């Protein structure tokens, strides 16, 4: 039986200073896709500069809910959140 994948919410800072939030089971693989222009439509037109951070979620549903909540935050609060993730 296959082990359930761990889901993550991640934030990317784009070259223009904007932020992108997404979910995945493999953060580094997904970031590489964004860098290669094979990720989301947003990051194709706003190329990534760096991966700001990520956090683990219980499952895909939890990751989706967390992603939604983060997307509602102002950019400054998203950056503070990433700093908190880096400390944890």
How does this model look, in words?
- This protein is of the alpha+beta class and 88 residues long.
- The protein has one domain (7-87): GIY-YIG endonuclease, CATH 3.40.1440.
- It contains four helices and three strands; from the N terminus they run ββααβαα.
- It has helices at residues 27-35, 41-45, 60-71, 75-87, and strands spanning 7-14, 19-24, 48-57.
- The protein has a three-stranded antiparallel sheet, sandwiched between helices.
- A hairpin with a 4-residue loop joins β1 and β2 (19-24).
- The longest helix has 13 residues, at 75-87.
- It starts with 6 loop residues before the first strand and ends with a helix.
- The mean pLDDT is 94.
User: Could you estimate the helical fraction of the residues in percent?
Assistant: 40-55%
Radius of gyration: 13 Å
Strand order of the largest sheet: 2-1-3
Order of helices and strands: EEHHEHH
Largest sheet: 3 strands, antiparallel
CATH architecture: 3-Layer(aba) Sandwich
CATH homologous superfamily name?
A: GIY-YIG endonuclease
For this structure, the CATH topology is GIY-YIG endonuclease
**Total DSSP E strands:** 3
Strand content: 25-35%
Low-confidence parts, pLDDT < 50 over ≥5 residues? none
How widely separated are the two ends? 32 Å
What does the overall shape look like?
Answer: globular
What's the mean pLDDT score?
94
